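Blinded run. Sample ID left blank on purpose so nobody reads anything into the name before looking at the predicted structure. Input follows.
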Amino acid sequence: MRLKVVLYFIVVPLTLWALNSINLSPIFKKNQYYASRLFLLILTMSLSYLIVNFCYDFFVSSII
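Blinded prediction complete.
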């Protein structure tokens, strides 16, 4: 379980950094800054969850 926490601390900032390079402003209506930031946060957490679980499962299955 500690490995997952360490992976989250590594993956979340990397995912946020990678997603910040995408221009999301054309997707949202004008003056919807907070909505776009919230969407970015939700997308970051979702992708981080998937990446961490994949890496953790891969690591655990490769040990056995």
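Unblinding after everyone has recorded impressions. Residues 31 and 60 are 45 Å apart (CA to CA).
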